[in-house]
Amino acid sequence: MIGYLEESWLFEAISETYIPLLSSFFKLIEENIDFRITLSLTPPILSMLDNNLLKQRYISYLKEKIKLCTLEIDRTKDIKEINKLSIHYYEKYTNDLNFYLNFAKSDLISLFKLLQDLGYLEIITCGATHRIFSNNLFK
């Protein structure tokens, strides 16, 4: 898949942060475990999560990852440790695609809003993107 580096960062954030968080939150609700959490969602990330072109590209990204994992599973069938890892990633990306298409209906923002409306999540924001600080700045 040829795309922009920033899109890859977004897609990795969705698969590595937002979907795991949402899945965990809804699992806690399903298990009747009370929780409260505050989460910052900035205007730039919300804009990207709401963009129809990026939503379609994320679906394509996941399908490409699943295809590559399928090839890797076949390629590594005689190398047990690597094959196990290939299967892990195949299942992860397949689960991400299922969650995104079927549970979230390609709308992660609505799930965050639902959690907020149910009282589990407090969404805060800021006027820009998140900043990353080095520990060296505070010494």
Overall shape: globular
Distance between the termini: 43 Å
The low-confidence runs, each spanning 5 or more residues with pLDDT under 50, are: none
Strand proportion? 5-15%
Question: H/E series, N to C?
Answer: HEHHHHE
Q: Evaluate the radius of gyration.
A: 17 Å
Question: What's the arrangement of strands in the largest beta sheet?
Answer: 1-2
Mean pLDDT: 91
State the total count of DSSP E strands: 2
Give a structural overview.
- It is a single chain.
- This protein has 139 residues and is mainly α.
- 65% of the residues lie in helices and 6% in strands.
- The chain has five helices and two strands.
- The chain has a two-stranded parallel ribbon with strand order 1-2.
- The mean pLDDT is 91.
Secondary structure blueprint with pairings:
Layout: H1 5-30, E1 37-40, H2 43-49, H3 52-75, H4 80-103, H5 108-117, E2 121-124
Properties at a glance:
single chain; 139 residues; mainly alpha; two-stranded parallel sheet
What is shown here, in short?
By secondary structure, the chain is mainly α. 65% of the residues lie in helices and 6% in strands.
